Amino acid sequence: MISVIVPVYNVEDYLRTSLDSLVAQTFKDFEVILVNDGSTDLSGEICEEYACLYSNFYVYHKKNGGQSEARNYGLNKAKGNFITYLDSDDYFEPYALELFMQIQQMYDVDIVSTKEKEVYSLESKNKSTSTPIFDENIKIFNNRTFLEKAFYNDEVTVSNGGKLFKKHVLNITYPNGKIYEDLYVFAEIALNATRIAHTDIKVYNYLIRKGSTVHSCFKKNQYNFFEAIEHNQNILRKRVPKDTELEKALIAKRVIGSFILSNQAIKSSKEDLKEVQKRIRPYYLNLILNRKVSVPRKVQASLFLLSPKVYYFIIGLYKSRKKN
């Protein structure tokens, strides 16, 4: 059985779409763990409604503690041998769980990894329920290769969305009160696995909406990104201390991933922009000497560290030409 863990907080406008995508699954041996994390809108009532209508939906209400705490809570309640996550404003394709299980059983893997699809409107939903042919699209990785690829954002991402995990792989604790929780635990999850199957088929739809972490103005909790990087660094040094290539990949993640923060800071805080610059500067030479980092990424880092003002002026020119 699959346990689908759904943290819920103030998403009444999106929640039904998310839950309906679970009701529509072609694979039926699953439970849904709805963790209402102190919602102040109608989200809790909607959860109760679905739990009354469907015997495999379970709702738990708790005080607000954030996404990580809700995930930890859901993990403790899950009864399935396999775990997947669905954020309550995102939704699955109807064949998502079936595809997960077909790949898992065919290749006997600890993690099934798929691609996320960014959507900007709920109107763009795919009406097809047919499971895509996946035989020629599967790649099998060991845990080290999978982790390295995720740090480089090469085919694989550190997001927990669109992935199926054997339950033992999730012998981790998400960091309560922090964002970037997927990145924070990713090294632990990957190293807990042995075999991973990856496909570029997109079964998870990630809704881009106003107020999301990636598309909002800079907030101080964005520095949780660096805490997540440092936690991964500690895990690597503890579990694979001699793997210098993984260390290089994590450094690349630190520098390149920080541009999301700087893109937000440029809108609201020159001080935070300088702080981001300060936090990645010590790793610049390592990035430049890393053959697995593309030349455009190296140029990007060089320009940003030389002058954020010049860097964002060039970015602005590029975007305006692209529009024209």
How would you describe what is shown here?
- With about 325 residues, the protein is of the alpha/beta class.
- The protein contains twelve helices and nine strands.
- The chain has helices at about 15-25, 45-55, 65-75, 95-105, 145-150, 180-190, 225-240, 245-270, 270-280, 285-290, 295-305, 310-324, and strands spanning about 1-10, 30-35, 55-60, 80-85, 90, 110-120, 140, 165, 195-205.
- Strands 1, 2, 3, 4, 5, 6, 7, 8 and 9 form a nine-stranded mixed β-sheet that branches.
- Helix 6 packs parallel to helix 7 (about 225-240) and helix 7 packs antiparallel against helix 8 (about 245-270).
- The model has no long low-confidence stretch (mean pLDDT about 90).
What's the quick description here?
This protein has 324 residues and is of the alpha/beta class. Helices cover 46% and strands 18% of the residues. The protein has helices spanning 15-23, 43-53, 67-77, 96-107, 143-151, 181-192, 224-239, 244-268, 270-280, 284-289, 295-306, 308-323, and strands at residues 2-8, 30-37, 57-62, 82-85, 91-92, 111-119, 138-142, 163-166, 195-207.
The string of secondary-structure elements, in order, is: EHEHEHEEHEEHEHEHHHHHH
Shape: globular
Number of beta-strand segments: 9
Q: Describe the largest sheet.
A: 9 strands, mixed
Oligomer: single chain
**Low-confidence sequence ranges:** none
Radius of gyration: 20 Å
State which percent range the strand residues make up. Answer: 15-25%
Supply the helix-strand structural class. Answer: alpha/beta
Question: What is the residue-averaged pLDDT?
Answer: 92
What is the number of helical segments per DSSP (H or I, 4+ residues)? 12
Distance between the termini: 51 Å
Residues in helix, %: 40-55%
